[in-house]
Design brief:
Layout (H helix, E strand, L loop, with lengths): L2 H6 L10 H11 L20 H27 L8 H17 L12
Length: 113
């Protein structure tokens, strides 16, 4: 992601657990487009213990649900001129799936720490 894209989309915001997901949706709403580059690798470490994996998955699900609450209305309530209809539909489906998984208040879920 280019620095100009990050700045244009409002920079990093800490109101969700998944700042990168939030930033990418805000950038899309501002008209930025992204391409998947198959040859690019991003090495990452897997959690060493099952408890750590559950904690990571919980954070990702909660962060995606927070991002859904923040952006779902803008993506799904009206046509968005900066996005093709298929992108808008795909984004609504993806973001909404996290809110379905986390439809109860997050305090109702067991938090793995």
């Amino acid at each position: 992601m280019r620095k100009s894209c990050i700045v244009d989309a409002g920079g990093w915001q800490s109101d969700t657990l998944t700042e990168d997901l939030d930033l990418s949706y805000r950038a899309q709403l501002r008209g930025w487009h992204f391409r998947y580059l198959q040859g690019v690798e991003a090495p990452a470490e897997l959690p060493a213990a099952m408890g750590a994996l559950k904690s990571q998955q919980y954070r990702w699900t909660k962060g995606a649900a927070e991002t859904a609450r923040k952006h779902l209305a803008r993506y799904c309530s009206r046509p968005c001129p900066s996005l093709p209809a298929c992108t808008q539909f795909s984004t609504c489906s993806t973001v909404a799936s996290s809110s379905v998984c986390c439809s109860r208040p997050c305090s109702a879920y067991r938090c793995y720490t």
